[in-house]
Structure formats: structure tokens, C-alpha cells
Amino acid sequence: MEVATRHEGASGFLYEDEWAYACTLGNMLALFRRIAIAIHMRLRARERDGGDGGAEKLKLVEVEVEAFEEAPRAQIFHFIPLMITTAAAATAALVGTSALAAYADAKFHVSQDVGQLQQRRRAEKWYIENASKNRLSLWYPFCNNVTKFPNDPCIWSREGELTWQEVHDRAARYAQYFIAKGVKPGELVAFYLQNSADFVVIWLALFCIGCAPAMINFNLKGNSLIHCLRLSRSKTLLVDEDEACQERVKECRTVIEGELGMNITVLGAEIKAKATAMPVTVPDDSWRESVNGASPSALLYTSGTTGLPKAAIMPVQRIWALGNQKKPSFGQVPGPGGDRWYSCMPMFHGTGGLTMVANLMGGLSLAIGKRFSVSTFWDDIHDSECTIFVYVGEAARYLLNAPHHPRERDHPRLRIMYGNGLRPDVWERFRDRFDVPEIAEFFNSTEGLFQLLNYNRGDFTAGAVGHQGALMRRLVQNVFIPVQVDAETGDVYRDSTTGLAKRMSYEDGGEILVAIPSERAFGGYFNDDKATSKKILHDVFRKGDIFYRTGDALRRDGDGRWYFIDRLGDTFRWKSENVSTAEVAETLGRYSGVAEANVYGVTVPKHDGRAGCVALSLSVRREDFDFDGFFGHARANLPRYAVPVFLRLVAKESSTDNNKQNKVPLREEGIDLDILGSKVIGGEYDVLLWHPGGYGYVKFEKSDLEKLRSGELTI
């Protein structure tokens, strides 16, 4: 298969593989044929009526349709802009004005769709050009920008500003440092690091020697940390000099160094001095010659329903697709005086890290904040002179809920906020208060098979996670498909007779499945075949088809606006992090006196995401259970965001007929004390505790719920 071979089967261009490329072209051809026929018939009617100028337009349409239909597949995208222009011009000829064409484009957003396809085509061409020269390492596009802008600002942080040449030289020194440590091309180096300029510099250094980082969440500890390190198979663990980070690693040192055989290196003054003493010598091309489109740019981790974090490779090809030097998205300008991206989101996450590195490839400078803080955010925006900042939805709400900041509108260069998870009720209030005119909200996953973007500059698409015009909707109608899901099991619903799934309307929505030609189209989870297999469905709508499960439910309205419904499965988001119920339950279940821990997420008034709640069945009398000890156990063995906020003492376990934990009725009742027992049998006798702050759990009262509803209390 031509494209699959050319792209090593990695995702990033068009719709991720040959399957989508072919179906895209077929659908596009059918759509344009229908448009052309309609215009053709109208123009013939005009000619019969003696209309002026119709013959010339008619001939133009006929010529372009013939060329479009007969063009080789590889050239067909070149006809899209001309076809649109032809269609618009011919339509305008019917009324003697371009007003109808402008109205049609405003209604169907064809030019937006064509622009996206053209951008993907440019990125693909850029990628192919470099692949033919065996220069797919991301070190090369970075170096191209160093040549163009050597003395211009590249990375800003509170520690100072580095030029492109300084970043290059620093990365070359770190590359020599890693070579001296015995790191080989193709290896992953584990990052347990907080945000800094050196985070990016060292990332580039790994690109320079044909390597990539494994992005470990620096909040992890204990079994979760060891699990992620084991998955990476890294030989080197780079640890932040932060004392808390070092302490968490120290607690696992015996396993990390012994069982895993990893070398622990603290990125402190001593190591930085050693790297600085290295020569500014770029290793030769042989260090990067094995890098192809499927090679990792990073190993990312994502929590799923299996319990512990899963790892997925972000292939190099997708960064080439994101960091297009030819024509950056959103009207950005590279180089001196151009656009600058600011992020204080954790760089071990794709949104905070990969976004920034991809922009470096496109010649755009960066500004890096160490961590998110409502008190310093606008100071960083002002001082860095950024034009775009990266967000996650909760961060936007935190900023909106914060008191007035003197610099919250004092940012003359800022024009775009880019990220995901921006809640509809925050959208316009944020834009109006902080004077951020453009919002680029995207929807994606680490695996990257389902991607949406909403580049919003007005009311029409406000609150949507993506937008598609008529052309793109037609192209993906059999690629991105909403299906019904069993609310109890979380499985895709199957008809009892046919065994096939039930397709939902886009307006009603459902879990989105993505059509793929083979299991190879989904790169899978790193070193986890079992988790990978759970994401693939066979014989969904007909015998032999294959689909990828996104695990997310969305709907799309008649105007092409996509809206997020819910994250399916057991995992929930709290404090900007994914929390795995199985992992939490396993940890809590080890505490003495716990018979069963059933963990789920509950909505909390005036708060984003879902707070953790554990339905606890005890093997001892309640008065004999050590609740303070239980809380201490949770705090000691889980990241802070994963410690349950609520604790429900249940009289009877909630389970299905086959003895599996049943979270659905517990989740539906949530923390509303008035409806306890309405879904859970015997639930009216349950007692709800919570952890509002401080240490330990206390009884959750109706007055507490009312204070949460009014906003008087926050968690």
C-alpha cells in the first residue's frame, strides 16, 4: 500500500493511513461530482434561456470535472482549490454577483475545509521531501531554524532568555554528555522533570543522537512510578533537582536500580556543569540515520480503565505534521518579531510538551513557565511577550475565578489561547474578561486517531471542541462514527440477533469509533498487547470491518460543530489529571479492615471534572476502623489528585449479576444526599464522608452540599 509504506504506517497525515486516504478521495470525488453536475445543469438551463456568459463558465466546469476525475490519486488534492473556485465562480454567474458564493461558503465552510486539507498536503510534502533525504530526525528542522534565526530569541523563562544558537549549542553539549554516559541511538531516556528551558534543550539533545524521552509524571510514586519506568525499558532516569521529586524516587531507588537496572541521574548543578564542559560538537548523521516516521518523538503515558498508566509512542511523523515550516497554522509568523508560545502546563503531557516542541520545528519561539499559578500567570504572559498560550480547561476556570490581576488585560501581543477542555460556560466569559480574541480548542488523544480542531473567533462555534464544514463532514461520515454504548458495562452495544453495533445519529452522539484498515493502523500501547487489543473492535457494522475505540462520547450538530459529552469507562479527570479507578481501588483495598473499595468519579457543583469517591465496604465494625490511618495510607501511596475526596460507607456492595463492581448507580446518585438509595439498593442507609481540607475525613452534611452549590466552598 503506497502511502502506508511511505509513511511507515505512522499517524499524522490526512486520516492516518492508506485506508482513510482512499476513502477521503472517493468521498471527495463523489461530492464534487454532485456539485459540478448541479452547476452544470443550472448553466445549461441559463444558456437555453439566452443567458450571458454561461457558456464560458460551463466549459470551465466540464474541463475541471474531467481533470479531477481522471487525475492520479497523488495529484488529486491539487484540484481542490480550483474546483472550489470554479464552483463558486459558476454559481456566482447564475446571479451575476459573488454574494451567493460568499453566502454558500459562510454556510458550508468549504474554504475552511479546503484550507485544512491544503495544510495537511503541505505538511505531507514537507515530510516526504525530508524522508527522501533520510533526514526525518526532528533535529534537522530545528537546525534549519537555527541557521535562519541564530541570534534571535528562542526560549524565554524566568531563568533568562536563550537564542536559537544558544539552545543549539547547549543541546549539542548535552548530546555529548549522553554519549559519554553510553546512551545509544533508539533508546528512551526517562524524564522525571518539572518544566524548564533545560527540559526542551535536553529533549533536543536526545533528538540529536537518535533518541527520545519517556515522559514520566513527576507526581507519581510507589507502584505507579515503578510501573511506568518498567514499561519504558529505559536505562537512564533523569530526575529533577526538586527535593520532593528526589524523595519520591529515593523511596523506590532499590527497585529502580536493582530490579529495573536503571541509572538515576539528578539534573542538578553538578550534572549541568558536566554538560556545560562538553564540546559544542554535533554528532554526525550516523546517530540519526535510523530515525523514521514511526520512531518515537516521545513516549507518553495515559491512564485507562485497566488500572495503571499505559504508554503510547508519539511518532516522529506526527510532529512533522504539526510543526509545518512552510505555512504555520492560525496565521502565525516564525522568526524575529513573530509568534511566541507560552506554556506552564506540565511538559510530560502531550498538550504541554509536544505542542511546544512542534512549534520549535516551525520556527516559533517559546516561553516556559515552571508551573501553573493564578498569581503569576499574567505576569508571565506580559513579560514573555507571548502571542499564544497553552491551557487545559480547568486552568482557564481557575484564572476566571481568581481576583482581578493588574496585568490580566495588559498583554498587547497576546491573541490566541490554545488547548483542550475549555468548558462552554467559561468560554465567552474568559474571552471577554481577559481580552483573548481567538480560541483554538482541539480534541485529541495520545493515540491520535481521532482529531478535531475549533479555531474560534466569534459566537458561532463557541463552546465546541471541533468544527467541520460540509466537505469534511462528508469525508468522515464513515470514518468517525458514533455508536451506542451499554451504560452498565461500558461496552459497545451489540444487537442480540446480528451481533452488530448500533450506529447513532451525529446529533444524538455516542462513543466515537474510528474506522481503520488493519490493527497496524493503531500503533498500540507500548509493551502492552493486552491493553492494545481492548481498543480494537472487529465486525462492528459488517463482517470483516475494524474500528478503534476512542473511549469518548461526542455529538455533532447540523452545522458541523462537535461537542464533548463524556469520557467513557471508569477513568475520570480531576485537577487536570486522569485518575484510574482500578489503580486507586487496588491501593485502598490493601488497607486493613477494607473488604471492598469501589472507586468512581462524582460531579461536584461549581467544579470541573469529577472528584474521586470510594464506596467502602468494611470487614470490621465502623467504630473499629481507623479512618485517619486509612486517609494516611491513601496519601502515602497515591498522587494527591487521586486521593478520594468523598468516602461512602455502604451497607451492601453494589455489583452486577456476574459479581462485577457496578459503578453506574453510585455515580448517578453522586453526592446528592436527598437521592441516596434511589438507584442503589439499600443506599438510603449509607453514610457519606468527605475530605474538604486538612487531614482525614469528616461527615458530609446537607449544609456542605449547599455551600458547594453556592460557591461558598471549593475543593
Automatic annotation (TrEMBL):
GO biological process per UniProt: long-chain fatty acid import into cell
Positions of transmembrane segments: 79-104, 200-220
GO CC terms, sorted: cytoplasmic side of plasma membrane; lipid droplet; peroxisomal membrane
Domain (AMP-dependent synthetase/ligase): residue spans on this chain: 145-470
Membrane topology: Multi-pass membrane protein
Compartment(s): Cell membrane; Lipid droplet; Peroxisome membrane
Domain of life: Eukaryota
InterPro entries xrefs: AMP-bd_C_sf, AMP-binding_CS, AMP-dep_synth/lig_dom, ANL_N_sf
GO function terms (MF aspect): ATP binding; long-chain fatty acid transmembrane transporter activity; long-chain fatty acid-CoA ligase activity
SUPFAM superfamilies reported for this sequence: Acetyl-CoA synthetase-like
UniProt KW keywords: ATP-binding, Cell membrane, Ligase, Lipid droplet, Lipid transport, Membrane, Nucleotide-binding, Peroxisome, Transmembrane, Transmembrane helix, Transport
Catalytic activity field: a very long-chain fatty acid + ATP + CoA = a very long-chain fatty acyl-CoA + AMP + diphosphate
Main localization, broad class: membrane
Family matches, as Pfam families: AMP-binding (PF00501)
PANTHER family to which the protein is assigned, alphabetical: ACYL-COA SYNTHETASE FAMILY PROTEIN (CEFD1), PUTATIVE (AFU_ORTHOLOGUE AFUA_6G03630)-RELATED, LONG-CHAIN FATTY ACID TRANSPORT PROTEIN
Family the entry assigns: Belongs to the ATP-dependent AMP-binding enzyme family.
Function in brief: Acyl-CoA synthetase required for both the import of long chain fatty acids (LCFAs) (C14-C18) and the activation very long chain fatty acids (VLCFAs) (C20-C26) by esterification of the fatty acids into metabolically active CoA-thioesters for subsequent degradation or incorporation into phospholipids. The transport and fatty acyl-CoA synthetase activities are genetically separable and are thus independent activities. Esterifies VLCFAs in the peroxisome matrix. The VLCFAs are actively transported into peroxisomes by a PXA1-PXA2 heterodimeric transporter in the peroxisomal membrane.
Protein name: Very long-chain fatty acid transport protein
Biological source species: Viridothelium virens
Taxonomic lineage: Eukaryota, Fungi, Dikarya, Ascomycota, Pezizomycotina
